Amino acid sequence: MNDGQKNALALPPGAVPVAYHLYDRGHWQTVSAAIVEEISLCLHVNGRELVTYQCSPVDQEAMAIGFLATEGFIESLDDIELIELSHSGTCVDVWLRRPVTFPQRLIKTSGCGEGVTFDDLTRQRPPLEHRTTVTPTQLVALFQELGRRETLYPLTRGIHAAALCRPDGIVLIAEDVGRHNTLDKLRGKAMLQGIPTAGAILITTGRISLEMLGKAAKMDVPIIASRTSPTSRSVALAAAWNITVVGYVRRDSLRVYTAAWRVRAEEAVWAEQRRGREDESWDGDDDDAIPIPAL
User: Three-state SS string across 130-180, please?
Assistant: First the structure.
C-alpha cells in the first residue's frame, strides 16, 4: 500500500488497513479496521550491514541511533558523520567519523520482533546511585498519560509503547511492535533532542526482560515500570545494579520488586514537603527555634 492510500484512510505511519471476518455470538460479519505494520529494517554502519531487525516503520533513524549508543558504537551525535533513511524506509545507513570493529557474537533476545544485542547482558555494572523517587500515584498517572498519548494502540492493539518520564509527567514517547525497540527509539529521540536520560523514569507496556533492564541501565535510568511482569533474571540484576523494578501497575496497586525505597508513599512526600516549608520559614533565631526553659 502506498502513502496516498494510507492517507486516504487517515491512518498514521505504522498502521495499515485490514479487513477481517468477525464471529460473534453465532453471527459473522466483515469488519474494516487497522493492523500494525511490521517491516524488516537493515542497519548499515560505514557501508557494512550490522544487523537487520523487525520493527514498526516509525522513527527508524532514532531507533538506529539509540541502538548504536546502547551497543557502544557511539557515545554522542558527534560520532556520526551522516545518517540516511532509504526511500523505502527499510534501511538506515550510518557513517561514523571513525572506523569500528564489528562484533562476531550476536545474541537473540526474548523480545518480540527479533531483538538482538552484541553485549553480555549479565556483566557486572556499578550500581546506579540516583536519588530519583516517585509515588505510586505519580506512576499510575504516568501510565494514564501514556494511554492518552498513544497513537497506534487505539487503532491496532498489537503495539508496544514506552515513555521517558520525570515524576510529574512524560517527556518522550515511542511505539513499536518490539518492546525493546521502543527503548532504543527513546534513547535516539533523547539524543537528537538533547534531553538527558540520567536519573529519569522509564515506563513500558511490555515485559521487563533482561534486555530491557540492560537498556535502562545503559541510559542511566534508575526506575523502570511496566503494566506487566519482570523476569527472574531482570529482577536479580536489578537488585545488583540498584535499579527499581515495578510491575503490574494498576489504578489501585503495583508491585515493587527491587530498590523499593525509590517508590515513596504520598504521606512521606507530604511530610518532607512540610519539613521543607518549615525550614524555609525559620528566620535563624535559635531562641525562637529551640525553647529555653526558665532557670
Answer: CCCCECHHHHHHHHHHHHHHCCCHHHHCCCEEEEEEECCEEEEEEEECCHH
- How far CA 54 is from CA of 90, 112, 135, 263, 292, in Å, comes to 10, 9, 35, 34, 72
Residue whose cell numbers read 486516504: 8
Is 71 a domain residue?
A: yes
Residue 161: domain span: 136-268
Q: Is 100 among the domain residues?
A: yes
Over residues 232-255, the pLDDT tens digits come to 999 999 999 999 999 999 999 999
Contacts of residue 44, defined as CB under 8 A and 6 or more positions apart, other chains included, come to 50, 91, 92, 93, 94
157 and 248 in a single domain? The answer is yes
pTM of the model: 0.84
Dump pLDDT digits (tens) for 25-62: 999 999 999 999 999 999 999 999 999 989 999 999 99
Q: Are residues 257 and 147 in the same domain?
A: yes
For residues 195 and 252, state if they share a domain. yes
pLDDT of residue 112 exceeding 60: no
